[in-house]
Amino acid sequence: MIDFTSENIADFEFANGAILPLRDDFVNERTTRKPAGAMAAISRLAIAREANYCGGRLMTSTAKQFFSEWLNGLGRGTLLCREILTSLCTVKPAWHDVLYQMYSIGVKSTSVVTITGAFTGMVLCAQTYFQFHKVKMDTATLAVVSVGMGSELGPVLTGLMVAGRVGAAIAAELGTMRVTEQIDALRTLATHPVDYLVVPRFLAMLLVMPLLTAGSIVVGIFAAFIVGTQLLGIDPTYLWYNMIHYTDMGDMMTGLIKTFIFGAIIAIVACDKGLNCLEGAEGVGRATTEAMVYSSITILISNFFLTLVLNRLLT
Questions:
Q1: pLDDT value, residue 7
Q2: Rounded mean pLDDT of 48-60?
Q3: Using CA of residue 103, residue 160, residue 196, residue 206, what is the dihedral sign?
Q4: pLDDT digit string (tens) for 162-183?
Q5: 87 CB-side CA count, 13 A
Q6: Do the domain assignments include residue 295?
Q7: Rounded alpha-carbon distances, angstroms, from residue 53 to 47, 48, 62, 306
Q8: Number of domains making up the chain
Q9: Rounded distance between C-alpha atoms, residue 315 and residue 312, angstroms
Q10: 310 domain-assigned
């Protein structure tokens, strides 16, 4: 006799007109089953926790890899500086190679540096005039341009332009030589790659960077003078007098000293990336990009500290 009371009616099912008792395991599963919404929420929470854990590990490993690569690059650059100094003290440079590199680095970069300096001076003159005109200081415009171009904008922008053009070219050239095993061939001929490849480029960079920077500064100031007198209507006599009066020799010396350091940075970073690039076209392309980016970042960072130190020493 089957009891159909309200307490046990849920333990039976109806199939084809027959009343069959439910299995014990099905009754236990149904009584312990959680709602579908709760199960979905628990699943989403577990997935989110797993994603956060994996994301945190990925960020940590990426930071460690970046820091490790940065330390390795710093160590390689230091060792390369030591090898360059050793080569300069023990081996006579091949001056015909140095002259060729001076032509490749300096003469071919003149147009880029000149255009950059001219338009930088013009836009700096215009922006300075727009602000100084409000307080009736129009004739001091060229003084700001000369100080800014001489100590900061001239060397920094020249360094960035040379890093983008020459630094990438040096890294690509040396990287291609490494991939095609030409550097290994130099070692088999008892020729040190630093003596034959790095030192001429390093010396050429040190010699041409001050010349390029000086040209950029002169062109920038002259272009600013033309804009100030012809387009903005500033009196040329007082404009020139204030520039000479407020521009100190220490400002120009600061810019020229910076150019030597920026040139050394570009040469060392580019040669290091080229000599240690990975195999294949992808490795050469990555070395070229890293040479330009790392040189530019290093120039911008070192410029801040050089400004503080040189301003203390030269004033």
A1: 46
A2: 57
A3: positive
A4: 999 999 999 999 999 998 989 8
A5: 21
A6: yes
A7: 10, 8, 14, 42
A8: 1
A9: 6
A10: yes
**For residues 83 and 192, what is the distance between their CA atoms, to the nearest angstrom?**
10
Instruction: Say how far apart CA 49 and CA 45 lie, in whole Å.
Output: 6
Strand, helix or coil for residue 20: strand
Q: Is 60 within the bounds of a domain? A: no
Domain that holds residue 121: 91-314
End-to-end Cα separation, the chain, in angstroms: 112
Element housing 18 (H / E): strand 18-21
| DSSP SS3 for 17 | coil
Q: Distance between CA atoms of 156 and 140, rounded to whole angstroms?
A: 23
**3-state SS class at 309:** helix
- The verdict on residue 220 lying in a domain is yes
CA distance readout (Å), 297 to 134, 141, 168, 263, 271: 36, 30, 14, 14, 16
